[in-house]
Design brief:
Blueprint lengths: L8 H23 L7 H8 L5 H14 L10 H30 L10 H7 L7 H11 L1 H10 L2 H20 L1 H9 L5 H7 L1 H4 L5 H12 L1 H35 L5 H5 L7 H20 L5 H11 L1 H21 L6 H28 L1 H8 L12
Helix pairs in contact: 1-2, 1-3, 1-15, 1-16, 1-17, 1-18, 3-12, 4-6, 4-19, 8-12, 13-15, 17-18, 18-19
């Protein structure tokens, strides 16, 4: 599945801004430990960023199918070998790292060997790693996605969207399903398979993944459409965010929800959350397609996109030690401190990513283990 088309700045930039959103969600989780959080800052951290994880799936699919010919020969084995290097090895590396680190840092001890398969299967070594598990499932099922994309049309995409909204609503809000799961004996396989369904079921993100593949395969038409409709795409992006925010504020101010309950209700798998994800994805794509890559802003997003993989995987470590530093000095995580925590996490983890990438140029195994990046083979001398 080698691509003949050049890399797109817009895709790189979207990786960067999506990674920034993921950090926001996790800083928001820390900030919610404040008993009286600022509702507007919670909205910024935990509602405005809800597009972040789904967009990563869209971008991943776009990267897989951009410049591809689905009628050309395809080696499933070669594909899996490449994806093992780029995803499975970093996933195992970071899972082991966090298990060892947290065992000593929190004094909980290393998990038993019998529990390791379950931890790895469900992505429970650290809170951000579930994304990798779902991505691995998408890669394993690549023959199915290729078959579906050959037949996919705008009309069938619309049908798929309806089915996606219905399935995600059932999985997220079904009282019968949740009651059934909670009455199951804990520490049983069936309980864990259902309880951790959001951690490993690719079913929750099939539409956004196939949308990314569809846009990649029809990119010339998509780019022309964006050039004509960019104002409408911006408007839909703002409208979808406004509707999600209105729902969030309604839950708190009129329905009596706590901020934690509100953000776990108005999430990315809700109908409004899915609308926001799609609208934000298209609006951001249009924005970055119009933004010149050579501008300072373009360079910043390119840098963030280039190192987004490492930052995504490593930022919980930065958050852990920054929050320790804040607590050790007797500070409460107020709104200004939370904003500073966000900025410091982004800058320090980016700095770490740059350093590790440069060290990896000298010690290739470092980049292979942390971000799945193997050194480029040296060109053979001409005879």
């Amino acid at each position: 599945m080698s691509s003949s088309k050049p890399r797109l700045f817009a895709v790189e930039a979207m990786r960067g801004i999506s990674m920034m959103g993921v950090i926001g969600i996790h800083i928001g989780a820390e900030y919610l430990m404040n008993p009286t959080p600022n509702l507007h800052l919670v909205a910024l951290f935990d509602i405005g960023t809800r597009f972040s994880v789904p967009i990563f799936f869209l971008i991943s699919a776009f990267g897989l199918f951009y410049g591809q010919n689905l009628s050309a020969p395809f080696s499933y084995r070669n594909f899996l070998v490449r994806r093992t290097r780029t995803v499975v090895i970093p996933y195992l590396t970071w899972s082991l790292f966090y298990l060892v680190h947290d065992a000593y840092h929190y004094g909980v001890g290393f998990p038993s060997l019998l529990s390791l398969p379950g931890i790895l299967f469900f992505g429970n070594a650290k809170y951000q790693l579930y994304f990798m598990v779902i991505l691995i499932w998408f890669y394993l099922l690549i023959p199915l996605w290729r078959i579906l994309l050959r037949a996919l049309t705008i009309r069938s995409l619309a049908v798929l969207l309806i089915l996606q909204v219905a399935f995600d609503y059932w999985s997220s809000y079904s009282t019968a399903l949740n009651l059934y799961v909670y009455q199951l004996p804990k520490d049983t396989l069936w309980h864990d398979l259902l309880f951790y369904r959001l951690n490993y079921w690719p079913l929750h993100y099939i539409f956004i993944f196939l949308l990314g593949g569809f846009l990649a395969l029809n990119f010339d038409a998509f780019r022309s459409w964006m050039a004509r409709q960019w104002k409408n795409l911006y408007a839909f992006g703002v409208l979808s965010l406004a509707l999600l925010l209105l729902w969030y504020y309604k839950l708190i101010l009129y329905d009596g929800y706590t901020p934690v309950e509100a953000i776990f209700t108005a999430h990315q798998l809700s109908p409004l959350g899915i609308f926001y994800t799609i609208s934000a994805s298209l609006a951001l794509f249009a924005f970055f397609m119009r933004l010149p890559a050579e501008r300072p802003t373009g360079h910043i997003f390119q840098l963030l996109g280039k190192h987004s993989y490492f930052i995504y995987l490593a930022h919980p470590l930065t958050i852990t030690y920054l929050t320790m530093y804040i607590a050790a000095r007797g500070y409460v995580l107020t709104a200004p401190i939370a904003l500073c925590l966000y900025i410091a996490t982004l800058i320090l983890t980016l700095w770490g990513a740059v350093i590790v990438r440069r060290l990896g140029a000298r010690v290739p195994m470092l980049n292979i283990l942390t971000i799945g990046l193997a050194p480029k083979p040296k060109p053979k001398p001409k005879r």
